[in-house]
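ok, trying the design again with the full structure, not the truncated one.
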């Protein structure tokens, strides 16, 4: 789309493709949400959308992506990728920036269909979006946050090289729960072989990094 070049943006890694989702990709993400994202009794999200019934999980997945498309501005943006493994959409990986042209700081967030856990996909898709942040967007920092009991997310964050950056308390379903914050500086990022960004240039003005 000439007026929305994000539709052509993608990142490739040795095993994955991260691409701006088509409507068919969103339908597939809805299927992954329906199948389940985490074990019963867990809640990795501040907004407990994954506790809804399967049909509502699918609809809210699509609605979330539609909202991010409509709300994107050069000063406050979120780019949510569909993650494709062996030809199948398996989850989503996001990167967000607020006043990025000044702060040069991004946040990341993601989820992966439960049946695809334990295969190293979460680590590889996080490394992919960090490649976009540091090699593509010339970020200075990347930050991430996860509940203390979200052990898989914390393990990925530590594995790829973030440093601890404090805690934040939240009301999660009526109980006080801490999230652990993490930060990675550009000088601590280690570029991985086989990671490539495609069609970023036309997208830069939408992210506040060039003339509109």
């Amino acid at each position: 789309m000439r007026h929305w070049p994000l539709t052509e943006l993608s990142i490739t890694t040795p095993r994955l493709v991260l691409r701006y989702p088509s409507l068919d990709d969103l339908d597939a993400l809805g299927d992954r949400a329906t199948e389940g994202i985490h074990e019963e009794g867990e809640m990795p999200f501040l907004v407990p959308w994954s506790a809804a019934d399967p049909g509502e999980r699918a609809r809210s997945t699509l609605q979330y992506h539609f909202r991010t498309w409509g709300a994107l501005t050069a000063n406050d943006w979120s780019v949510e990728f569909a993650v494709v493994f062996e030809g199948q959409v398996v989850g989503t990986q996001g990167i967000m920036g607020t006043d990025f042209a000044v702060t040069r700081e991004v946040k990341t967030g993601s989820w992966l269909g439960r049946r695809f856990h334990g295969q190293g996909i979460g680590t590889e898709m996080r490394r992919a979006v960090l490649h976009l942040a540091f090699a593509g967007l010339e970020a200075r920092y990347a930050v991430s946050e996860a509940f203390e009991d979200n052990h898989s997310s914390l393990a990925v964050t530590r594995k790829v090289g973030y440093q601890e950056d404090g805690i934040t308390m939240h009301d999660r379903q009526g109980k006080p729960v801490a999230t652990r914050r993490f930060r990675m500086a550009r000088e601590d990022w280690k570029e991985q072989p086989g990671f490539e960004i495609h069609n970023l240039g036309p997208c830069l003005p939408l992210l506040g990094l060039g003339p509109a």
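Keeping the full-length input from now on. The mean pLDDT is 89.
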